[in-house]
Amino acid sequence: MMRVRQLYYAQLRQGAERAFRQQVGRESAALREGWESEGLREISVFACGPYVCMYAERLDAREGAVWDWPRSYETYLEKWPPAPSGTRTGGADEAPFRLAVPMIDIFHDGLPEELEASGVRFRPEERIGTLARLKPALASSYIYYHYQRQEETPGSFNASCVIGSAGALLFNYRELPAVAGAVNRQGLLTTRLSPADWHEVMAPHFDPWADAKAGEELWRRMVRIV
Q: Which one of 44, 53, 123, 205 is least enclosed by Cβ atoms within 10 Å?
């Protein structure tokens, strides 16, 4: 069955972080059960300060299907304009607002169906979410390099890795142990122009976190809460 990756971003109201985490902790089993009934699998929710990101794989790839937090979470989360017309799930029903917005997939090293077909995907030991801030003026450069790498050498890094964008905010999801070389898919590019000094080329694209731990100045580690 085909799976579609979905990434979502939500932002906590000022002062709501502790209460939100406690509420999610109390309701985690019910939340997961509800999400799975909507066809979501491999669900992970991460938090870091006011930022909340979700990764999931949707089994039913209905066009326009949009996930959202239950309406009861509007106490903790900022409201966004309503989602475009389509099949809305979770708390999105007919609400005049939404509590989470879809992130744009700007890089994926592999595809869920490729991992399933390869027979090498197993229950990951760790699911990791990290957060970065992109310099808006360098967004086109960042996306260009990532598309180039994605289509020149698919599956060469970690086939579970995906990067989503909500404006200048970037969310990176990946699973460990890394599954590299699991797919044999020909990318859309036949060139080999991705820079060898990848990290050096990428570093200037980011707006560093001033208060980050050592080693997390560019990509800040999030806490998995579901």
A: 123
